[in-house]
Amino acid sequence: MATTTQAVRASAVKHRRMEQSSRARSPRDRALPAYYWIVWPAVIAFAAFHTLPVIVGIFFSFTNYAGYGGWDLVGFANYVNLFRDDRILQAYGFSFVFAIAATVLTNVISLAIALGLNSKIVGRNFFRGVYFVPYVLAALVIGYVFQFIFSNSLPRILSGIPLIADNILTNPDWAWTAIVALAVWQACAFSIIIYLAGLQTIPAELYEAASLDGASTRRQFRSITFPLISAFFTINVVLSLKGFLQVFDPIVALTNGGPGTATESVSLLIFRGGFTGGEFAYQTANAVIFFIVITVVSLLQFRVLQRREADF
Amino acid sequence: MTTATTVPLEAESTEVTARPSRRRRGTPDEDTRRTNWWATALIAVCSLTVLIPLYLAVAVALKTPEQLASGTGFELPWPIRWENFGQAWERASFSTALLNTALITVGSVIFTLLTSSLVSYAIARNMHRPFFKGVFFYLLAALFIPFPIIMLPLVKQTSLLGLDNQAGMIVLYTIYGLSLNIFIYTAFIRSIPIELEEAARVDGASTWRVFWQVVFPLLAPMNATVGILTCVWAWNDFIMPLVVLTDPGSRTLSLAQYVFQGQYNTDYTVAFASYLMAMAPLLLIYIFSQRWVISGVTRGSIK
């Protein structure tokens, strides 16, 4: 009996609260219906074509689905097998070595060129335009041009260097450097523009004051330029590493993962195994791990780089 | 993939925007520094790394196979063999691919501009309401999910829905573009004084009319940015057409180069003519609107 009254009282209180809250959100506070009519279709479309595939993918990663035919739930078997699979581990190894090398080179080169473009030079706008050209080219198509350079032109021009004379793309140990060259060549276009925009936010007075105080150019870079563009540095490093970890087009254009599986990135492996290797479920599990890896790496980078930013 | 790299650029750049002084170093009128000839020389030499591959693409495309076989590829082409382009056009069924790519790119740009701006407007004007804020972060979170994650299930879904064609590509670019575009638009829309809209509303205009007649025209600079980013992405994308499109008749330019390369991988002169034709449209547009494109992309990333 007591409990019933309590329940009734409780529900009455709840009711009153609901009334209150609905009164609080009277028409004034609720958005116009038109806004909901705009946003809901977008949310539904996005959920259907983005969130749904994510969820379906996570579900199938716990099955043994081959991409066709029937399937059974297998628990964490795919995930356990991933860590014992040499091909998977090699793909992660390649992707990380590639991404770190490409990120370092992209940022060093872009920053250097942005500094050059930001100093007083002749034909500044022309050169800025030239350096941005790779951005509008398809990585795959310009990649085929690079493939010709590495496999046909360079062996003849630099026939004295054994590594290059034998076509570096067929060398299992060094083919990745050619892919780095192509990826960096293209990624620099965008990074240069970002660094240049960053450099242009630095007021010229700072340099004038510094040079009056007798600071050398190197000192000015270390104490003024770099600290003031460190936010741009963080963005560029995080984004390039994230992009390079997912490398796909340049590899397809240059080596197609070869020789053997020496230059197979995680994206390429997911694509190959998932579509032609009958490993649908296995590669979706790989994709889930890949997502976690990329997110963790990006977040770690942000923390490390931002802490360093704060030091200045 | 490249465009995917550019995509989440905004993620943290907002904090950068507040720098008060935007004085430009290096604009000719206020720059009193002496011309730096060392830097000029260095920049000029380095720019060759960009120009040489492009020169090679042109040089090889104009050669005869015999000429190519006898040299490194960098020699000036003589006599010029224009037939390479004709052959490439036929063999790669270039006209179909060009038409498909143009259709997909134009369609994606138009739909993206119309929908992303509208959705951003609805979100930006209601950011203080939990529902809209939630939607904003929900869409934004997708920037962290790389395409390979959704690739395999997505392909099943598009073929099931009959969207493994050009129309499907337009739908996908429009929807996947939302995340970044909303980020670009909302910050800008919130800087537009709301009084403008209120004035229109007092005159009896509906939300719909307020948006199209008052807000949308004001979004012109952001429309340019979003349009350029979408255009470059849709035109050059390779991985999405590769996995989604099934019918050879719906192939895009990048995909056609991929297939062509697999079939005639030693016929370099014709292949290069084909590559050149695939890159030419965007390259030409870029050359004629260079300054505009660069400022558009910069605005998208720095604001």
CATH level 3 topology of the domain at 94-254 and 282-302 in chain B:
MetI-like fold
- For the record, give the distance between the C-alpha atoms at the N and C termini of chain B, rounded to a whole number: 23 Å
Could you name the CATH topology of the largest domain in chain A?
A: MetI-like fold
Low-pLDDT stretches of chain B are 1-28
Most extensive interface between two protein chains, with residue counts? A-B, 103 and 111 residues
Rounded to an integer in angstroms, the radius of gyration calculated over CA atoms of chain B is 23 Å
Choose one word for the global shape of chain B: globular
Class from secondary-structure proportions of chain A: mainly alpha
Tell me the number of structural domains of chain A: 2
CATH class of the largest domain in chain A: Mainly Alpha
Mean pLDDT of chain A: 85
Features:
heterodimer, A: 312 residues, mainly alpha, MetI-like fold, 2 domains, 14 helices, 0% strand, globular, B: 303 residues, 15 helices
Describe what this molecule looks like in 3D.
Chain A is mostly helical. Chain A is 74% helix and 0% strand. Chain A has two domains: 1-30; 85-311, MetI-like fold. Mean pLDDT of chain A is 85; it is low at 1-27. Chain B has a domain at 94-254 and 282-302: MetI-like fold (Orthogonal Bundle). Chain B contains 15 helices and no strands. In chain B, 45% of the residues are buried. Chains A and B meet through helix 2, helix 4, helix 5, helix 6 and helix 8 of A and helix 1, helix 2, helix 5, helix 6 and helix 7 of B.
